[in-house]
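For practice. Supply one:
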Amino acid sequence: MFSVVIAKRVTLNAAKYGKCMSTCTDKVHSVYPGAVTNSDLVSKAKSALAAHGYGEKTLLATSLCCDEINRVLDRDFGAVYDVNFSMGGLAGFPFGGVTSFGAMAHHIPDGGDCFVVFGPHVGIDADGVVGKVNRRGMANSGACCGSACAAAGHVACALKGEVPPQVISTDVVDAQQTFVNNLLLPYAERLDAADDTMAELPRALYDAQKKIIDQIVAAGCQEVGGDGKIALLGGIQINTPESESDYFLPMDFEVRSNKNETIATLSI
């Protein structure tokens, strides 16, 4: 079993960064009540899954945005379950689809189970601005998630009739972003009505992604062999400055059989 070693990015001077930590942390808890630090998430998920036989024979899979800032959560869970299989692309959508789920299922250790962590992400910077994050080596904060922000801009313009709704592209050069734009379109009015569009954006993205994950698992569950189980933990990653822990807002946590039957509904 791998020891629980949380992949903390950097520890900075608390006196210097205490104010921004407080501002960011307060914003996390006010906008996303129920969010937990990565360390708490990993510890609680490990404990909950152990009761269902998860341990050394678990294969970790993630569907998270390809943004490098999200590799922190991969590493944090990897400290317990080893290196992850990646299903995700822009904005966290599971672009690997049924094929990637089937491939992952065939990599599960004999007699083991899989654990899929999925969802979109959002940044909160040192000034408490939702939709931005302070990145390593950069003087100013920037968009996070960039793909999601671009999609939100598109659907806002489409709602106003300023641009035609995104049609999914057959050109591979930027196909993923056209999918993100298109899949967010049904949530245009919801985002327009939100008090804070950037805060609501990852919630809308999560709802879109959860539907796809459910379709993928329904189609590929039988590829998990023997009595292998499928654990699904979905939620919103919350990226923060390097002086602060990242957070995760759990939305769904369950264990299913390889017949897609619910075995248990869990909580963090």
